[in-house]
Design brief:
This protein is α/β, with parallel strands linked by helices. The chain has two domains: about 25-95 and about 110-145 and about 230-275, D-Maltodextrin-Binding Protein, domain 2; about 145-225 and about 285-325, Bacterial extracellular solute-binding protein, family 7 (D-Maltodextrin-Binding Protein, domain 2, 3-Layer(aba) Sandwich), CATH 3.40.190.170. It has ten helices and eleven strands. The protein has helices spanning about 1-20, 40-55, 70-80, 110-130, 170-180, 190-195, 205-210, 240, 245-280, 290-325; strands at about 25-30, 60-65, 85-90, 135-140, 145-150, 165, 180-185, 200-205, 220-225, 230-235, 285. The chain has a six-stranded mixed β-sheet with strand order 7-6-8-5-9-11, sandwiched between helices. Strands 3-10-4 form a three-stranded antiparallel β-sheet. A two-stranded parallel ribbon has the order 1-2. Helix 2 (about 40-55) packs antiparallel against helix 9 (about 245-280). It is globular. Bound molecules: pyroglutamic acid. Pyroglutamic acid binds near residues 168, 188, 205, 208 and 230.
């Protein structure tokens, strides 16, 4: 008797819970890059997919181009719950842990296939480090390969000696130093102004960012090094995520997996397309000379060794897993 009464009570409670309209989650999502960038377009589609799959119970509003929080603040705003979800360049967190910078070492993984194997090998550790900060990784998508933009033809590192070189993370700073240039941190959105005012003379970035910043207005040479594929990642505050009902959490993870696959495809597809756009707008596109290629390979070896030193056993295991996956 008691048992039946208990059952009907829980049944009634569960019934009442279903009868109540579910409180909708309205999530603001800060992202660093502009609306014309494929990462932002992929995230906009992700937000639409989540809204559709949850019948509007989880509404994500994308605030692109650092309009809600500037890039350096996005990770902490998500960690503190000021924004439940956000996007950052993974390697911007290198000062917190070297594993976040494993995708920004020249020539460690410079094709999509290698980048995918490296992501598979490093993802568990990235997830673990984020989890320790109350963050859950949803998905990560690479930029196309990183190549050099300059005002004069680049035949060797000597051509960059003393040049002020735009950097976007610690690894690009180190690369500039190793090539004899002087690094200056500049956000993607500030690239045109930084060149126009003479703050920087050269940079290394994807054809995507070259096109979105209209690199032909301030540089004339694109040297196709495609040296590494740094990733953007989408993270969610774990408490905010766990506050969602289970079916909505599942819908979010599903949409995230779809966005990851779609994003990698978009990235690969636009590599050639954006190089062609640079050329159509008057830039000279060339392959690195043997000398430059050798110098860059040496920079990559130095940076790999430095990374391994810093990342210790955990890092060594990631590289071993990557190499055995290739
Ligand atoms: N674009 C971003 C990061 C890497 C890339 O291709 C930037 O230049 O800031």
């Amino acid at each position: 008797m008691t048992f039946i009464a208990f059952r009907s009570l829980t049944g009634a409670v569960a019934g009442a819970a279903f009868a109540l309209p579910a409180a909708a989650a309205n999530w603001d999502m800060p992202t660093p890059y502009g609306d014309s960038v494929f990462h932002t377009q992929n995230i906009t589609q992700f937000a639409e997919d989540v809204a559709a799959a949850t019948d509007g119970a989880v509404e994500i509003t994308v605030h692109s181009a650092g309009s809600l929080y500037a890039h350096p603040e996005i990770k902490d705003s998500v960690r503190r719950g000021l924004a439940p979800i956000g996007e950052v360049l993974m390697s911007r967190l290198a000062n917190e842990d070297p594993v976040f910078a494993v995708d920004s070492i020249p020539f460690l993984a410079s094709s999509y296939e290698e980048a995918e194997a490296l992501w598979e090998a490093s993802r568990p550790l990235v997830e673990k480090k984020l989890a320790a900060q109350g963050l859950t990784l949803l998905f990560a998508v690479p930029w196309p390969g990183q190549s050099l933009y300059s005002q004069e033809p680049l035949t060797s590192a000597a051509d960059l000696e003393g040049a002020s070189f735009r950097a976007y993370n610690a690894a690009t700073e180190r690369l500039a130093q190793l090539m004899g240039a002087v690094p200056t941190q500049v956000e993607a959105g500030d690239i045109p102004t930084a060149f126009a005012t003479g703050r920087v003379d050269a940079m290394i970035t994807s054809p995507s960012t070259g096109v979105s910043s209209q690199a032909w207005d301030f540089t004339s040479h694109y040297t196709d090094t495609q040296a590494w594929l740094p990733k953007n990642m989408v993270i969610v505050n774990t408490r905010a995520f766990e506050a969602l009902p289970e079916d909505q959490r599942a819908a979010l993870l599903d949409a995230a997996a779809t966005a990851e696959t779609r994003g990698w495809e978009m990235s690969a597809a636009e590599t050639e397309e954006k190089i062609a756009t640079l050329e159509e707008n008057g830039m000279t596109v060339s392959q690195p000379s043997d000398e430059l290629a050798t110098e860059l390979a040496e920079v990559g070896e130095t940076m790999t060794a430095e990374w391994l030193d810093e990342a210790g056993d955990e890092g060594r295991q990631v590289i071993e897993a990557y190499q055995s996956g290739m």
